[in-house]
Design brief:
Length: 91
């Protein structure tokens, strides 16, 4: 039996969530990078690369958790990838 791979979330969608959330709070990526002591390019790398510490910092700044922004990067406790459709069915 062929193992099904979890559906990947388009990084552009997650990135739009990040940028909108930061913009609403008048925070720039450069300011966030300086706050974290990182280069802006390192902070921006989270768009395509799993970088838990930066993901957590961004999520805190926009009052959410990384799982809400990057659900395909964070499996639930049973090891299942959380998808947006799973979240919608719970409400």
């Amino acid at each position: 039996m062929k193992k099904l791979e979890p559906k990947r979330i388009d990084p552009e969608i997650s990135w739009k969530i990040v940028k909108r959330g930061l913009r609403e709070r008048r925070i720039t990526l450069m300011a966030l990078a300086q706050e974290l002591g990182l280069a802006a390019s390192t902070v921006c790398s989270v768009k395509y690369t799993n970088y838990p510490s930066i993901e957590a910092a961004i999520a805190r700044r926009i009052s959410t958790v990384p799982e809400n922004i990057w659900p395909d990067r964070y499996p639930d406790r049973a090891g299942k990838i959380i998808s947006n459709s799973d979240q919608e069915s719970d409400t």
